[in-house]
Amino acid sequence: MNDKPKTKWLWRLLRWGLIGMAGLVTLAAMLVTEENWRGKHAWETYKRAAEARGERLDWTAFTPTNVPDDQNFFYAPIVAETLQAERNERADGQAPHATNTANRMKFDIYCGDSELLPKHGGNWQKGEFTELKEWPAYFQTCSTTFEGKTNHFPVAAQPQSPAADVLLALSIFNPALEELRQASLRPTAWMPLNYGNGFEEVGTLLPWLRPAKRWASFLQLRSVAELQDNQSAAALADVKLLLRLTDTMRNQPFLISHLVRIAMQAIALQPIYEGLAQHRWNDTQLADLEAALAEKDYLADFQLAMRGERTCAIYTFETQRRTREMKSYAAENGLDQMVTNSLRWMPSAFFYQNEFVFAQMYEQFVLPLVDLTNRTVSLAAYRTTEADFKEQAQHWSLYKIQARMLFPAVGKSVAKFATIQAQVDLARVACALERFRLTHGNYPEALAALAPQFIAEPPHDLINGQPLHYRRTDDGKFVLYSIGWDEKDDGGKVVLTKNGTVDREKGDWVWQYPAK
Fold first, then answer.
1. Which tens digits make up the pLDDT trace of 219-228?
2. Which DSSP string corresponds to 308-332?
3. Domain segments of the chain: what residues?
């Protein structure tokens, strides 16, 4: 008798449960729909306002237009073959000898055990010249190693000067170098990439970036040897080639390409410094060097790189929203492998809000760090950015997770751009000072005497907008410096870290020549 009421009651509970569950699902769907609309609305509202201010948030604005192959540096035979060979090597982790593509730009001056490497390389920031006397013995030893037998470094039958021995050893690369020099005359440089892949395409860019510093080191050593062998015209040609190679990555919308450019530019400053300190450049060559350096604008490049990185991130978020997949590289067995993570159940609001937060953080915190009008770097804004980001990092949000993952490295990059621009500015003024000395027999009392005959206008200190500090010294030389990242005038003092490297965040950024 009691079974029917009990059964009926159970059915009622089940029905109410199903109704309640359906209600919760409907409510959740409504909330997700509303949240998706709010995220999309927030992003599109911000995007319209930003574009009205002149910001470009469309990824196609940062990708190349059609460039004829015969005008593109990357389609020159030696460059195209090298790029393909590097990609093949990266893909299978083996040397490209098994393919039909040769790497004729493998300007590798290092081989064998690292213990054999010369220990006394130059460092202009510490006033140190490159010592070439260790290199002939190194190349001779290299010829007995597996790598050396591959490169076949020529060795003189009878000892010559260290510079002549170095140039002889490096002559193995002369045919490829001359072909590269011709390729560098092409007016444009757009690497053949699939920009539709967004950040995923950085993996395709890496085979060019990884050996770039190796090429820079080769040209640095060659130009230093040429200077010491009284071949200043050849040294100038090699320095200008190195500067051109740094520019082949300038228009890439990826931050990593600009960081590699900065490293190459720093390498190029060493032979310029040594030629100035040892009075090996003539007036015409100095004017040519100063003009080449004046074309470098790393403050503008900072804005370009930051806007490109921002827009690429936004494009990547959009791609993730459409595909519901997030791809990244992970190291496996010594190779970079693409890993795909599913975002199938992630609401659209996640992507829209991360786009909004990321773009807003760039506009508020990153772009104001560099003032192109006054050509200054705002350290006050940089420190505010650091503090604000640390504050925001304490408050976790699903809508900020991707933005926060990408943002930290970006903010710190401004220091690298500021440092290299300051160093280029110092080198330009040093060229003008040397031209003044060649004309008048000594250095001027003040930088104002350089303009307009030796330089159109001396650049100012980009840290505070004031004139660079300059004074003549009792030994007939000079000290030229920026007050540096700590914004303090230390009188031209270079501060070293515990490891003996130059501390770029302390002391001044200095250009001076060592005592005889």
1. 999 999 999 9
2. HHHHHHHHHHHHHHHH-EEEEEEEE
3. 40-67+296-463, 72-281
